[in-house]
Amino acid sequence: MVPGARLRIFKGSKGFRVAVRTSLERKVGFARNPDGGWMTLPDFRQIVVVTPSAEHPNCAEVLGFKREDLIMVFDASLAARKKRNPDFSPTAPIFLPLDSLKRGEVTKPGLKELSAWEIDVPLASVASPQSPNREGVKQFVDRIKREFAELYGAEEKDVDIQIQIKR
Known about the structure:
This protein is an alpha+beta fold. The chain folds into two domains: about 5-120, no CATH class; about 125-160, no CATH class. Helices cover about 20% and strands about 30% of the residues. The protein is built from two helices and nine strands. The protein has helices at about 65-85, 135-150, and strands at about 5-10, 15-20, 25-30, 45-50, 60-65, 95, 100-105, 105-110, 115-120. The protein is elongated.
């Protein structure tokens, strides 16, 4: 379990625990116990998924799901996989896309449609072009030189950085 995978959140004065899933590829996965039951899902009222925003490049999309909704859709996906492959491993994880998939005339809804709530959160590590604190090119190169020197135990004056944009 990675740090931050379990959080206590509050709505007003009411608090409860949530499980957190992160995904760079906009897919959500859950592992299964050796008996085939879901890990994590039954133990939390809500599951929070954090992924890069599909609409805003400098934001993370944060989605909240009710446990029951995810169990329903993951159970259905597992049943379909077992029907196609009766020897499907009882401990294999299942991954489902957040976004709808269109194949020909058929659109298969993504998990995002089941979310109870969603919000885009600006990424603090990405400077906005309008930010007065935005690092300039010289400061960026100096910082990279300093960090590289520290990483390899060299003197900063002995590090040369070349950055090119290929077009």
